[in-house]
Structures are given as C-alpha cells and as structure tokens.
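Write out a record, focusing on structure:
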Amino acid sequence: MGKMGIRFTVLSSGSTGNATVIAYEDIKLMIDAGFSARRIDELLSEREVAGGELNGILVTHEHSDHIKGLGAVARKYNLPVYANELTWAAMEKHIGAIPDENRRVFGTGETKDFGSLRVESFPVSHDAAEPVGYCFYDGKEKLSVVTDLGYASDRVMQAISGSDVLVLEANHDVEMLRMGRYPWNIKRRILGDMGHLSNEAAGEVMSLLMNGRVKRTYLAHLSREHNMLDLAKMSVREAMEDRGCFFKDSEFKLCETYYDRPTPWDKVGDL
C-alpha cells in the first residue's frame, strides 16, 4: 500500500465476532480474530489482504467473539500474538498451543513500535480478565479502537482524545435491551459498568471529543438483538446534539460497521 498514512478496515464487528486490520507502510496488524479461520480468510480476501501478509494479532480480551479463530490463524500463518499477561492466562485454554516465540506480552498501558507505527494499549471496563483498547500513531495521525466497555472512564477518554478517527462501541439501544428476550441477569450485565456501551453513552463520549480533531467515528459492536444501524446513528447524533454538539456531514461523519462484511478501506488522514 506504500507510504500512505494509517489505513484500516473493520473486517466485521458485532456480538457474533470482531476483527479489524490496521495497515501502515509495510505493516499490517489485526485486532482480534473473533471468527473461524476460514471466515477470517474470506473477510481478508474481500479487502485484498492475504493472511501471510499480517505481522501480528493484537488481542483486546478473551471473549469468544474476539478470539474464536485466534489460535488457528496464528498457527496457520506463524503470526505473533500480542496480549497482556492476564488475557494470556484467560485465553490459553481456548486457543491451543502458540509457539513461545510468537507469544508476545503487551502490557496494559504500554506502547510498542511496529516499524514507524506506534501502538498504545489502554485499559477499559468490561467483564474480562484485563480488557484493553488500542491507539495507533504515525507521528501525525491517530486512530483509536475501543469496544467492549461498560463506560468511558477518565483513562479511556485520555487515551482516545486527539484521535482523527475513532472506532467506538455503540452496542445497544437501552429500551430495546430492556424489552428484549434476554434474561434479566444478562441485561443487567450488559447495562452495567462492566458491560457494553449504549448508543446514548457513545453519543456522550463523542460530545466530549468534538472539540478535538476527530473527523469520523465508526459505530461498532452493534447488537443484532438490541440495535439497528440507522437507530444507532440517529441516537448517537441526538445524544451529541442534546449536549450542544451540532455538526455538518462535511465536518464530521458517523460511519457504519457491519456484522457480515468489511468496511471499505479508510485512510485516517482523509477528510
């Protein structure tokens, strides 16, 4: 892809599986591998990426919709896997053997350089061992990816501030969830501080970032049971406007992710 700045595609995102590819110069990293290895190959192929081109997989946490194909993909393409120690301990029995040389520890709050691409890990609030989000910098541009969080803590806000583009969870509509068929204990988990971010909460996060440089936000990890794309975009926008954030589409865009197909390649620095 050449020296074209940070590019990315959300291969697929939702309650049934998640994976994203970040590309910069000759580096390609995948965040999570929440589908079968076969499905991941299909999604990569749709964006003209071969599994063997990847330089590693960054793991956010050990839930199955983020690691389902992790072990198989890592072994098939001999890829390094990056996760913090507690996530490694929680997921090892689910992903199978990973060679020692590919078992990389990426501590929460640390930064690692992949060529000229700097990656920062930061903690999020979710019911997993030690869940994280990731920020990507090239010295000029910043992309942040944060899903699976019950609320946006001060640490999360600090990490994602100054982003040019953000991939942010908008998991559910609160009323759809409350009226849905899930047992109350599951609803309580999703609604809690260790659960998932609602549409309105995502809008609140965005309202706090709009004084920065953010150009686009991709709404991710939408529940197929308790959300809809159009509803998520409308609700996030309304929540932002309720907090005094009014914008033109030429200035800022709310973008979609999909549970069944990749987003187009996006260059972070583009308007």
User: Anything to note?
Assistant: The two ends are 19 Å apart (CA to CA).
